[in-house]
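This is your field. Pick holes in the following sequence-structure pair:
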Amino acid sequence: MPVQYLPCSSGGGNPPGGESCCSPSVTSTSLCQADGSPVLLMVRSPCVCGSTPPGDPEVIGWIDPTIGAFTPGPAPAGSGPCAQAGGCGSVAVVELCDVQPDGTQVRFLRHLVHDCDGAVTSTTDTATDGTTSYTPTGEVGECPECVPVPMCPHLLGITGPETWTAPEGTESVHLTVVCAPVTITDCAGSRTVVNECGAFSWSAPGSSCVPGELCGLTVDVPDSAAVYIQWLTPCTADES
């Protein structure tokens, strides 16, 4: 059940606002079934866009740490806090890398269930979405220090008639409408006509030091209209 990170999009014919989404997050909580066997309850916090109030976290499923199987929905009936003195059991999640024979690396999460003495009682591996079961196939170790991808800014002034399409790898776009109207189309094919001058922004959240990428944004500038467009993309060899 991978979690897909999507940039905020506008619709309904209204001018898009300068808002962006944060990424949803998944956490795990250790519970015990009536027979004492452990389960990991998976809870997801929703994506939050701009000034929108955050929604309530939701339970998306649970993991049996003995076999690493994920089951959607609420925890098994009768599950609750583990019966340990002081309620001191805990779950820790660490990000590790599965190094393949060709040198490539696959990041994954290891969920460690600890008892009151701090000893690890069970482990479960999942993909970075926190729910999809993962089985390492190479050498497991700590991930190397993340080096952010250098980003380069671009600026373009356009007078119509002309159509601008966001280049591949574009992480964010800032549009200033000098002379309206202009038409903006997103990757889903939704068209928004902007009839007033103003500034609008879009950005795609990234993860693990990898920048996000906007999909298929186009700006149609008709005759007598004019805009300025600023955008960020990963630097090329000539730019860095």
About this structure: Residues 34 and 150 are 52 Å apart (CA to CA). The longest strand covers residues 90-99. The mean pLDDT is 79. DSSP finds no helices and 16 strands in the chain.
